[in-house]
Amino acid sequence: MADPARAAKLAQRIKVVVAEALGRKVKDPRLEGITVTDARVTNDLQHATIYYTVLGDQVVQADAAKGLDKAKGVLRQEVGRNITVRLTPTLEFVADQIPVVASNLEELLRAAKKRDAEVAELAQNAKHAGDADPYKTDAPQDDVDIDEDDFDDEDIDFSGDNEIDEDNSK
Length: 170
What we know:
By secondary structure, this protein is an alpha+beta fold. The protein has helices spanning about 5-25, 60-70, 70-80, 100-125; strands at about 35-40, 45-55, 90-95.
């Protein structure tokens, strides 16, 4: 079993070889709009999955899938000539869903931006739900001085004798 780093390098090489072979060797008109986006190889280097995208509607994508299936042997032969492994991996072509997911994500971002603009517009004209000072009272606030006379003798002892025994007696 090969290490994952070697499998990743081989996958990148297979991606380049397949993309070049689609342009040079395969003359099928159904395969002209294909872009190879990624390739992955199993750790035992026996199977390669190649991800591709096709611009166009569902009919064009279905035709491209049929064309790739038909050209799979030629592409595998080209991969075998251009890589240095004992066994040529089998090729599997998978339509990449990244453009679909990206367009969905862009639509969600547009909707969020629109909602943010609506909220910002509402926030400009909004007023606070209460008074500016929620702690305001009806009683007049005068400066109140607290003296020793305001406290009971039981509450605070100003004598400076801080020793209190367990039964609170001095």
